[in-house]
Amino acid sequence: MKKHKLPKIYGKSIRYLLICITGIVCFAVLGIYPNQKTVTSLDNDTAKLETEIREQELLKPLYDDLLRRTRTKVPADLPFPEKGRLDRTKTDDIPEILGSMAHKSSLQLVDVTLDLNTLVKGSQSLSVDVRLNGGFLAFRDFLIQLQGIPYVNEIEEVEIQPADGVKEFRLKLALALK
To answer: How far apart, in whole angstroms, are the C-alpha atoms of residue 9 and residue 24?
Structure first.
């Protein structure tokens, strides 16, 4: 059997070999490894987005239901009466008026409080605190009806709080007086 002799590797060839191996290692370290980190980061981002998409798919029926509920018809003619003033002798009718408006709007009138200090001082405005219970859309209808009262100057405060499965609405109204 013949033995094969390996050729002698000369000094320059070894240098070239080392330079090529160094180049390949540098390419792997500088080119492939950072890209691998980027790919891992993109995989994590993709997983987060897939989770968000699943959450959105779960919430879509709820969103569609809320959207359907809010698509109620907006009154074509919103009330914009000429502004007027309430006669001081008719301030006793305010709770009845607000109660009938609440009933028409499917709200429950809890309390109506007139600030009698404004009546005594001879002020041109009467402060009224109103508390109602009911749903959001019914409250919207109540506010539309409230806009139709000519002696309502402004709604000074609106406070909405959850209470026993419904919402509690608190309004502070300023009514114009004669």
So the answer is: 21
Q: Tell me how far apart the alpha carbons of residues 77 and 127 are, in angstroms, rounded to a whole number.
A: 28
Are the C-beta atoms of 147 and 80 separated by less than 8 Å? yes
**In terms of DSSP bridges, do strands 152-163 and 166-176 run parallel, antiparallel, or are they unpaired?**
antiparallel
Weakest-pLDDT range from 24-38, 66-80, 88-102, 152-166: 66-80
Burial class of residue 66 (count of CB atoms within 10 Å of its CB; 0-12, 13-18, 19+): exposed
Q: Kindly tell me the number of DSSP H helices and DSSP E strands found in the chain.
A: 5, 4
pLDDT at residue 126 tops 80: yes
SS3 159: strand
Please count the CA atoms within 13 angstroms of the CA of 173 that sit on its side-chain side. Answer: 22
Rounded-to-integer distance, Cα 103 and Cα 119, Å: 27
Residue 83 near residue 150, CB atoms below 8 Å: yes
